[in-house]
Amino acid sequence: MKIKIEKPNFKKLGVDMLFILIGCSISAISTIGILIPNGLTSGGVTGMVRIVQGFLPVNFSVLYYCFSITILIICSILLGMKEARKILLLTITFPTILFIFEHFQFSILEEKDLFLAAIYCGVLGGICSGLVFSRGYSFGGTDTIAKIIQKKFMPHVGLSQILLVIDACVIVGSGYLFGRNIALYALVTQVIFSKTVDFVMYGFETKAVQVEIITSKRDEVANYIMTDISRGVTNVMVTGEYTKTSRQKIVTICSPRESILIKKYVAKHDKNAFVTVIHVDTVWGRGEGFTDIQKD
């Protein structure tokens, strides 16, 4: 019996790297050329690094790299190597690009303008994350920290709620260190950032989508969604009107980024699969990232 060894898709890998390099460069320009020269901060790891910079005179890129490596190590220990592999590439690539851009010490805006800088940082940062997420990759940021906290300490609390609290704490901490106005500008940046990410990935759609899949690899795809994506799966029997052939359709509700991961997995294992992504306005339930059905 011959074992079929799947050849690496160098074309796809090349496109992924192109998106990652473009996205990371955009974010580095935003951080080094706008955020830092204007004395601003934001949520996430960027905000954490800015807070530490208030006490330690160390380059932003060096501190960011230290934070990223620390998160990667903790992630590999507490969440496993499967989760760590998702953030490994960006953990190395983004701080490296930051380090390169940091040596040019440039400013995009002609003069200091905090409000304009906050807007640009949110838009450019959102474009970066949207491009990276659309290729199925992830930064090892506060989303990974939230996963660790949820798994080890708060399994019954939604991931989005934990992430919101972490970012809020970072912004509040920035307020104590840099002043209330800077914290408010950071909040503006964070809101614009999240909206831009959603727009880049799915236009003006919301954060929840319904994915429907018809594939000959039903068991493999369903297992991937349940184990790797950690989402529930429903099977629905459907019949093609032309062929009169009945098949089972996989249905799941997930985030836009997770739908990209599912699509990539299905495309890799079944080139004849049929995948539909449907915009969902609101989801009430007990699942991660959904609105609690018991709330008023």
UniProtKB/TrEMBL annotation:
It comes from the Bacteria. This is YitT family protein.
